[in-house]
Amino acid sequence: MRIMKLRPLQRGQQRGLTLVELMVGITIGLIITAGASMMAVNQIGEHRRITIEVQIQQDLRLIADMVAQQIRRAGFRGWSELGVWVPELAGGAPTPAIESTNNPFDALSESDDGKTLTFVYETNPVLGKTRSDMTSYADDVNDADHGGFKIEDGELKIQLGRGNWQPISDKSSYRFDSARSSFKISTQSQSLEEFCDLPCNGLADCPPQQDVRTVTVTLVATSVLLQDVTRTVQIVERVRSDKIVGVCAKS
């Protein structure tokens, strides 16, 4: 009886993977997959963050432009001719001099905490008319002429008429920080004494003063979804209609 010896298989004759090789391969694959997943999650999170930052920044710019436009309207008088003195006109039927009147729309104020800015301006101006045409013109402030802004409950609100406050920000996306957001009015007064013909000689409210007013608006908003995303916008806008206080001596 012949006894046959079994030879071990040569390396080139092996087929398939051993258990150890399979486990090593699976481990390497899991490491690669985990790394790729982390990169994908980080990229998605960064993209989300950038989207939120851009949205807040764009909204703040639009709001800042709206605030600046409204501040420029503050003090607008529909019929500015009423603020100019008209001299006496001689002739067959002499016309007496017409005194100038103060601008009733020059009110501009901020609240004590700096969270509210209010002003007035003529919302229904009369254009292309002269003083003689407008004998019945009502040069006064009505409810529709009131404007302003205020920060309340994380929102920025605009006043469209007396007491009619409407939100112009989306507090579901971002909220304004009332501690760091504010409205501040700066006033620089300049004497107009050189434009008066007569000395004051102790006359009250003489000489007149020209108040040049500037409003500094600081708005700080924080994302609702990402609390560490905060953006700030600041504008400095001069009120175009300067306030005149006082009068010149008449005689």
UniProtKB/TrEMBL annotation:
Keywords: Membrane, Transmembrane, Transmembrane helix. InterPro entries: N_methyl_site, Pilin-like. The chain crosses the membrane at residues 20-41. The keyword Transmembrane applies. This is Prepilin-type N-terminal cleavage/methylation domain-containing protein. The lineage of its organism: Bacteria, Pseudomonadati, Pseudomonadota, Betaproteobacteria, Burkholderiales.
